[in-house]
Structure formats: C-alpha cells, structure tokens
Design a protein that fits this description.
six-stranded antiparallel beta barrel, alpha+beta, about 300 residues, Thrombin, subunit H, rod-shaped
C-alpha cells in the first residue's frame, strides 16, 4: 500500500475518549465546586475524618523511626544536663561546706580573741597578742611556733597564756617567730599555789598522763589536796605573774609505801588546739634595775660639800 493512501484522521470520539482540555476543564470545575462546597457547607468534613482515620495507623508507623531518633537524642541531652546539674550541685555543696567550716573557725577565733581582750584588761603586765602557726615537728616534745619574734620585742623566758590560763613559756626566739614550750612538756616546771589552801608546790609536765597533763610532785602524802582544786601561779619564780590559772587537780593517789602523794593535774589552758595566745613580759623584766652601789655614797659627799 502506498504511503500517501494512509488514513491520517483521528479515531472516532467513542474510541479516543475526551480530550485533555476537556479533562482539565471538568477537573477544574469539580475542584472549584468542592472548594466552594467545603467552604460554605463543610461537605467534605466527614470524608476527611474517614480518610484521616484510615491513614492514621500508616502515618503513625511511618513516624516511629523519626520519633525514636528524637526521643533518643532528647534522652542523651537530658542525661548530660542532669550530669551537669549534679556536678554543679556537688560543687555548690562543697563551697557551702567550706564556707560553713570557715564560719565556724572564724566564730571560734572571734571567741578566743574576745576572751584574750578581756583577759588583757585584767592582766597588768605588758602583753603582746600572737597567733599559733604550727606545732613543732619533734614528736617527743610539746612545743608550738607563734608569729612574733625579736622584731616584735619577744624575749626568751616570756610567759605565754591563752584565755583560760597559762599555756607555756617562750624558749627560743628567732627574727619573726618564736618557739613556745607548753606546760605539758616533760622539761617544764612551774611554781603553783593552791587557791583553796594557800599551799605552794611545783607542777611538772607529764605528757604520758591522759595524753598530756601535769603532775604536782613532792607533796606529802597527808597534804590537803583534793580533786577539783584550782592551782594558780605563785609568782615566786620571777617569771609568771601571780594569780594566773594553771591547772586543776584531776585525782590524788595516796600510797602507804611512799611519803609523797601522786597528784595528777589537768591544764586549764587549751594546750592542744588554741589559735591565739598572749605573750607577757617576765616579772623580772618589769622591775626597775637596782642603782649602782656607789650612787648613795656619791650623793652623800655632794650633800656634805654643800
């Protein structure tokens, strides 16, 4: 068959269907109708509800991976935030605990300083307030180091007291610090006076008793000493001013096989935890020096010449 004889006309209408333009027109009109009907009469609302109900399981299933990833990310973020909050809480708790300890320490120091100031008004001797820096490194002695030395006028042999009583005596003096030997040291001795009976004696350091105390030695077995008696400085040594509290009698042991009683004392001063002390000048340093021996004779000769 020749090519020019081919039928180039489109197929009949019932074979091809409506044209694309017709379909577009019909669909556009239907869309406009549905929009107007939905806006005016809410005709598609039940259809939307049915479609949403049918598609909800599928929608939920599709969204699960995204929700799981989001929940996992939120969990780890919450965990990190909780850990940071815990660290900050521990830090704040530590700071508050440190501040609380500092407040307690400051209150204790304030109380001790107030007591020292009150004691300073009662003590007539020249005094100097010092702070305890540290304990001596020697484990066989009872010594502390204070922050006053030669530049502050501290001399060897100066008595050292706290708010409660006699603490010890300055034994070594350096430029800026001094070493204080406590009463409980085995090499220390101090003359004391029983405030109840007026009897004198000598108290010696005895660190082995009760973890650090004193002992009143060379007292007769029948001496009038009772537990609870207060012993103060007698002042006969020329070092300690009289009347300062030293120790209190803890217990008395009287033995038939010994002429002397064993009298154990408990120091009045806080020998193991004081922070501030008062350094006094020895009694002998406050006494005016004696004039030379030839002074009266020279004065007498001048009077005769006149």
């Amino acid at each position: 068959m020749p090519l020019g004889t081919l039928d180039r006309t489109p197929p009949p209408f019932f074979r091809q269907g409506p044209s694309a333009l017709s379909k577009l027109t019909v669909c556009s009109a239907l869309a406009v109708f549905l929009m107007v009907a939905d806006a005016r009469f809410n005709m598609t609302q039940p259809l939307r509800a049915v479609i949403a109900s049918v598609l909800y399981p599928l929608q939920w299933l599709v969204l699960q991976p995204t929700a799981s990833v989001r929940n996992a990310a939120g969990y780890f973020q919450s965990l990190r935030a909780a850990q940071r909050s815990e660290e900050q809480a521990h830090l704040k708790l530590g700071l508050q605990s440190q501040k609380a300890n500092q407040v307690e320490q400051l209150l204790l120091e304030n109380t001790q300083l107030r007591s020292l100031l009150e004691l300073r008004e009662r003590v007539t001797a020249q005094s100097l307030v010092a702070q305890v820096l540290y304990d001596s490194a020697d484990p066989f002695s009872r010594k502390v180091v204070v922050d006053k030395g030669l530049v502050d006028g501290v001399g060897a042999g100066s008595p050292v007291i706290d708010a409660a009583g006699v603490l010890g005596q300055v034994t070594r003096v350096y430029t800026a610090v001094s070493e204080v030997t406590l009463l409980t040291d085995r090499d220390q001795a101090i003359p004391v006076l029983n405030t109840r009976t007026g009897a004198r004696g000598v108290a010696f350091g005895d660190p082995a008793v009760h973890g650090g105390g004193l002992e009143l030695r060379f007292m007769a077995g029948n001496s009038d000493v009772l537990a609870g008696d207060l012993l103060s400085t007698s002042g006969v040594d020329g070092v300690y001013p009289p009347g300062l509290p030293v120790a209190r009698v803890d217990r008395v042991e009287r033995r038939v096989d010994s002429a002397f009683a064993r009298i154990y004392l408990h120091p009045e001063a806080l020998v193991s935890g004081t922070a501030h002390v008062m350094i006094l000048k020895p009694v002998t340093a406050q006494i005016t020096a004696r004039p030379p021996a030839d002074m009266p004779a020279a004065v007498g000769k001048k009077a005769l010449k006149k």
